[in-house]
């Protein structure tokens, strides 16, 4: 119960704190809570070491920035970028994220993919003016999509999908906070339905991945549409780049799931046989229409 409390309350504390020291402490408490929640020695050690090193880099930047002791702002910002990307498991510092994510159970997996990303995203929001953030964000989107081409494993696809979507969210941190929250909420909702079905042949898996890729009229399409509309006000070039890789993502998922649908065509006619799938499909179809009227 204690680890879950630390994990759930840390994002709310991070969003409400003004002290840099307290902010850093809450992030570390969240990491401790997640380590206790995993209940796996090997994965816990890997997570502890990576989070500790990332925290040292972040603390270095915060202390020197607060005390106006920065010799080179660009170097310090690069150090901050490395620290945040290491803590989030984004490219090119993603290997630990793949190793842990492929071995842990469903509940810790969901937390790793969602709640543990909130605090680093908040720091991105505060420091997005750093020149290195957009560069690393583009790397996560581009290489995350390319790495998906080399795997048919659903869990690995979902891990790389997380890297890609976090790249999108990092871009959103420089714009309206409401767009970022809405994107993160939709992304979390999709994973909430998708992850429990990972080991089954349910149509929920196909719909979930198609939604993450942004296929209309599923919920994920509006997630990507909101982001692209926001990006277009900043740079049409990068909006087109993100759109192209989103289309490539769709083709990758079709490559994985189309052969499976041919092997089990009866699944297509059994979509409404499961109550869980009914809720999933209803939320994906009805919620987008709700967004239209916002």
TrEMBL record:
Its main location: mitochondrion. GO terms for biological process: mitochondrial electron transport, NADH to ubiquinone. It holds the Pfam family Proton_antipo_M. The chain crosses the membrane at residues 20-38, 45-63, 157-175, 205-225, 237-256, 276-293. GO terms for cellular component: mitochondrial inner membrane. InterPro entries: Complex_I_Subunit_2, ND/Mrp_TM. Its EC number is 7.1.1.2. It is a multi-pass membrane protein. Keywords: Electron transport, Membrane, Mitochondrion, Mitochondrion inner membrane, NAD, Respiratory chain, Translocase, Transmembrane, Transmembrane helix, Transport, Ubiquinone. GO terms for molecular function: NADH dehydrogenase (ubiquinone) activity. Residues 19-195 form the NADH:quinone oxidoreductase/Mrp antiporter transmembrane domain. It comes from the Eukaryota. It catalyses: a ubiquinone + NADH + 5 H(+)(in) = a ubiquinol + NAD(+) + 4 H(+)(out). It is found in: Mitochondrion inner membrane. Belongs to the complex I subunit 2 family. PANTHER family: NADH-UBIQUINONE OXIDOREDUCTASE CHAIN 2. Core subunit of the mitochondrial membrane respiratory chain NADH dehydrogenase (Complex I) that is believed to belong to the minimal assembly required for catalysis. Complex I functions in the transfer of electrons from NADH to the respiratory chain. The immediate electron acceptor for the enzyme is believed to be ubiquinone. This is NADH-ubiquinone oxidoreductase chain 2. It comes from Leptotrombidium pallidum. The lineage of its organism: Eukaryota, Metazoa, Ecdysozoa, Arthropoda, Chelicerata.
